Amino acid sequence: MAENICILGGGVIGLAVAYELTNRGFTVKILEKSKCGGQASGAAAGMLAPFSEIGEDPDDFFRLCLESLRLYPDWIKKIKEDSALEFEYTNSGSLYAVYHEADILALETRKNWQNRWGANAELLIGDELKNVEPELSDEIIAALYYPQEGHVYAPGYVAALEAACRKKGVEIYEDLGHVELIETQPDYNVLQSSNGQTFTEKQLIICSGAWAKELEDVLSIKLPIYPIRGQICAYQSANQSISHIVYSSQGYIVPKENGTLVNGASEDIAGFQTTVTEKGIQRLTNWNHKMFPFLKKETPFHHWAGLRPATQDGYPFIGLLPNQKIIFATGHYRNGILLSPVTAKIIADLIEDKQPVVSIESFQPLRFT
């Protein structure tokens, strides 16, 4: 068995990697600057929707997302058992909606290639669509129905992951402040937190989201990864009939089992600021009633923002640095929740010198260096 393992970052990816590694018998610690799941992870809407999110072609990123979707049922079952916590997980299905006749041909093309990858998508038009989701606006003329897609309640999922990790003996160091990699050698890495703690670790896994860019100088590599602020609002609606995730080109609405509708997301560049802005929420309220007309009279009861780690090419960094005991698993942008199971299994496979479940050639951390 390999040496003890240290994970930098306690978001959903760091927790998922720690959980998978402990299940394979490794001893793991997590170093977290604030609280586990306190950035993008806990603020996510929790969609598990690779077909809705990726409509262009089956590239490496699509295949990564699809594999993770397929892993989810068994993954969630085990987390619930190990954490003894319940949280919402549903394969509600989703609708990708369009407003113009000219878009129907594009939906047909999308359906054809995605069904070759097991989407089982159906094109719903007119009354067929109204029968599935009656409250949809009459402006929406068609939608692709994806029966395999769904969502989780992100805060509950992250809390259960953390609880499962703790029960399995993962050491979690929180509120460390800034954690700096001050020395790296082929056989060890030294990290120091702003509160004065020092950690000397042989195997290091970087799961620190957009903060991973801080490692460029010490590792002499280029890591074009940046925080993108995503703003979301929620409605405590009296209308309980919505049952599917509904996407359009402008955003999405997700019905949660607690009766709320989550509406997201507007995005902007604001550094590491997580403040909510009136302009950001207005971007959502300006269009959501065109999807569900009753929202025109509703006011969001809650709004929040999270930082999404976006890379220059939109692909995450997943892979080993040569000649160093450092592995990257970061830059998942808005798909961290979806990609947590597959990323965890890939990282564990790399540590065990096994072939990953999917190709990670496109995600190598040195691709910009």
TrEMBL record:
<keyword id="KW-0784">Thiamine biosynthesis</keyword>
<comment type="pathway">
    <text>Cofactor biosynthesis; thiamine diphosphate biosynthesis.</text>
</comment>
<dbReference type="GO" id="GO:0009228">
    <property type="term" value="P:thiamine biosynthetic process"/>
</dbReference>
<dbReference type="GO" id="GO:0050660">
    <property type="term" value="F:flavin adenine dinucleotide binding"/>
</dbReference>
<dbReference type="InterPro" id="IPR012727">
    <property type="entry name" value="Gly_oxidase_ThiO"/>
</dbReference>
<feature type="domain" description="FAD dependent oxidoreductase">
    <location>
        <begin position="5"/>
        <end position="350"/>
    </location>
</feature>
<protein>
    <recommendedName>
        <fullName>glycine oxidase</fullName>
        <ecNumber>1.4.3.19</ecNumber>
    </recommendedName>
</protein>
<dbReference type="Pfam" id="PF01266">
    <property type="entry name" value="DAO"/>
</dbReference>
<keyword id="KW-0560">Oxidoreductase</keyword>
<dbReference type="InterPro" id="IPR036188">
    <property type="entry name" value="FAD/NAD-bd_sf"/>
</dbReference>
<dbReference type="GO" id="GO:0043799">
    <property type="term" value="F:glycine oxidase activity"/>
</dbReference>
<dbReference type="GO" id="GO:0009229">
    <property type="term" value="P:thiamine diphosphate biosynthetic process"/>
</dbReference>
<dbReference type="GO" id="GO:0005737">
    <property type="term" value="C:cytoplasm"/>
</dbReference>
<dbReference type="InterPro" id="IPR006076">
    <property type="entry name" value="FAD-dep_OxRdtase"/>
</dbReference>
